[in-house]
Amino acid sequence: MTERWFPDDMPMPAANAETVGWWEAAADHRLVVQRCTACGRTRHPPGPVCPRCRSSASEWSALSGTGTVYTYAVVRQAFIPSLQDRVPYIVIAVDLDGASGARMVSNLVDVEPEEVSVGMAVEVAWEDMGPELALPRFRPGPRR
Amino acid sequence: MTRPGRRAVIAGVATSDYPHLPHLSEHAVHGQAADRALADAGLSFAEVDGFATTGFFPMYATGVAEYLGLHPIYFDETNSGGSSFEVLVEHAAYAVEAGAVDVVLVTYGSIQLSQMGRRLGTGGGGGGFAPGPAIYDALWGNTLVGNYAMAARRHMHEFGTTPEQLAAVAVSMRRHAASNPQAQERQPITVDDVVSSRLVADPLHKLDCCVISDGGGACVVTTAERAADLPRDPVYVLGAAHATTHHLNLSAMPSLTVSPAAQCGPVAFARAGITPADVDVAQLYDSFTITVVLTLEDLGFCGKGEGGAFVEDGGLEVGGRLPTNTDGGGLSACHPGMRGMFLIVEAVRQLRGEGGATQVPDARIAVAHGTGGMLSTGATLVLGREAP
Hints:
The structure holds 2 protein chains of 2 kinds. In chain A, the strands form 2 sheets. A 5-stranded antiparallel β-sheet of chain A has the order 6-5-4-7-8, covered by helices on one side. A 3-stranded antiparallel β-sheet of chain A has the order 2-1-3, covered by helices on one side. The longest helix of chain A is centred in the first third of the chain and has 8 residues, at 20-27. Chain A has one helix at residues 20-27; strands at residues 32-36, 42-43, 58-62, 66-75, 89-96, 103-108, 121-130, 133-140. By secondary structure, chain A is mainly beta. The two termini of chain B are 17 Å apart. Chain B has a single domain (8-115, 212-384), classed as Thiolase/Chalcone synthase (Peroxisomal Thiolase, Chain A, domain 1, 3-Layer(aba) Sandwich), CATH 3.40.47.10. Chain B has 14 helices and 11 strands. By secondary structure, chain B is of the alpha/beta class. In chain B, strand 5 (199-202) and strand 6 (204-205) form a beta hairpin. Chain A binds chain B through residues 6, 10-13, 44-45, 47, 70-80, 83, 86, 89, 91, 93, 103-107, 113, 118-119, 135, 137, and chain B through 122, 124-130, 133, 135-147, 149-151, 153-154, 157, 198-202, 204, 249-252, 256.
């Protein structure tokens, strides 16, 4: 079993009524996005109302888990002490396929910093944090 | 809402000592700046009926008011990060123009550097503290610098902006800092120095990042009518506006190459009845070199994507396209965490002709623009030497 990348003392999310569905899906390795059932807009992070039409009706819409790198940074100085031995690591903003308007910040793994580029195809790679928590990260995905 | 005969002006400004104040508390920095700004204005604490400041815990302004012995009938502690002080001065202008109060003291104080116990840094934290939706970025180890690095990378991708162009911002700020005896870093640097300095979060290098300092400042907002009896030439608040697009999570920012300045800048200019071409000197938030490039574009000093070329070849230096951050900015002079007050103080000094070696000749209109959070907020103040 490989060592978990995320250290034990990372700040952990506190799910609430509006976000618990996202975390529950993640625990099952299903990447979902919140979709407004009134106007169809997707949004991330999850929230109580649609920022476009203000409807509070929403559903968890399943995604394929693929996307493209909108932009990225190679973090070489971490500010959380327990991440300081993980540098360099890559933080990406990823545009998720099937979720227009919903961009997600995550990591890109299994790639050298020099090989990353804006527009790169990526696919989700799950990291289990425990029985009820898994975090989506990304790795270079199949060319489409 | 403006009452006839009430026009907001800045009657006094000051900076505290900076950039290293291990012997002072945060409150003492506020006090030093307040004393000096009121002395500059020719006013006493007894004449202050409004007070504004902000910091990082609730009821911050009331705490500082107590320390200063003020019992104001107007107070404000709006916190929009680095743009807070432009917002606080805008609010103060409305308050005095509405006739709610006559004299608003606005102060800032920070001992961020001494609290960290080190002399130089690279833009502070990010991570452990992740309120609300910010956790959706912080969980993956994203940092404050990382956010700005992602904006820089996207700007490079869309417009071909180069690391050398970003570096030119840092080089020009350092050139101005050489004339500021208080500046934290004064040794001249070259573009090569910047791009060969350590990468903190690609594509941003250490010298693309602001210094970390102790320091503060203050200004006094009153009416032109009240200022007529005061010693200093008043500086008019010609127009102001602020905007926000997201909290501390960059994932919710609509476009990483367009900051909130694109929204509030044109509004502030319209309220002032000016265009970017009328601006003689600019004080623009420079937490990172990319912050300046985005702000220049979004305020309309150049087209979107043209910021890289605009800052090259001394474009931001006195005598250049738009003299910017004439005190050396946050990149070289002083950055105690929320630098917006320094922008206002330097803008006023330029309009009064007190800019020293970096004075812009005959400066009549200045812009101070603060940026807060992760490109989350923007606030523009248009200041002028003459009544509108």
